[in-house]
What does this fold into?
Amino acid sequence: MSHDHPARMPAAATQRAVGSTSSSTDASGAPVPAAAMSAPAATVRAAVAPRPDAPDGTGDLVARDLVMTYGRSASAGPPALGGVDLTIRAGESLAVMGPSGSGKTTLLHVLAGILRPTGGHVLWRGRDIARMSDRERTVLRREDFGFVFQQGMLLPELPAIESVALPLMLGGTSRSEATARARTLFPPLGLAGLEKRRPGELSGGQAQRVAIARALVARPGVVFADEPTGALDQTTSAEVMQHLTQLAVHTGASLVVVTHDENVARWCHGVVHVRDGRIAGSGARIGAGTAAPSTTSAVVR
Ligand SMILES: Nc1ncnc2c1ncn2[C@@H]1O[C@H](COP(=O)(O)OP(=O)(O)O)[C@@H](O)[C@H]1O
Ligand SMILES: [Mg+2]
It folds into this structure.
């Protein structure tokens, strides 16, 4: 199968990417900044080759009856996760919404193999992450997953190009090749010329775009983002979400975005609402009024 098979590119995302680059406002009427429209899909596609297809469903990330209780159960209150089932389809994006303390970060950390759940299963490429050893999960996070956090979490002393190249070097790629691959991501993210800047010399939006490059440079199967726009204003936030969703679509990566911002969730194919550690509802997002309603990415049982 072709690496760029149209069926692997969700209709909603394709339409949204096209729609949002041809329009000067987003669905809420907020302006889409010119910088966010300067990354043609073809440039992004050329910068990062898509992963091979996984047509057998092993590209899905599946949670089954996830339970998470912090601390010793005798002294613990209600579980942070009280039995969560969901499926994130290969190549699709899911927003996880809910009030503070509802369990969003816990869910993201369990899905990403950062935390081991108290009960339940997380299935990824034929394996149960919840049953892996710490060492196996460390390798998995490095090789299969990418991460974007609220504050970018860039190392303050590293120039942007080295921050982006680092995940490749940790995976054994030579410095010269890692740097060369990292460099290709700067123009499509609107970061050309900023390769040598340290985090203190970048705006919040630029720093988050560097973090997006770092999360995607090793071609992860899934990118996890926890409140990736939490420190940004609405306009910069829209710009960052456009880059994140566009790059994820064109690399074939699935995307899980924790947010309490409806404007951020709008960029994703699907949304689940978390209340008190449980899924309280889900649905397909209607991105910029162009998404086909058939593209529900979250299957909740
Ligand atoms: N490391 C921890 N130790 C103990 N309790 C925690 C820990 N992290 C989160 N919690 C608790 O778990 C619940 C869910 O937290 P969290 O997943 O961070 O929610 P959210 O990201 O939606 O704000 C909260 O009651 C929180 O206090
Ligand atoms: Mg949180």
About this structure: The first helix runs from residue 11 to 21. Strands lie at 61-68, 81-88, 93-97, 119-124, 127-128, 145-148, 222-226, 254-258, 270-275, 278-284. The chain has one domain: 6-289. The pocket of magnesium ion (ligand 2) is lined by residues 104-105 (CB under 6 Å).
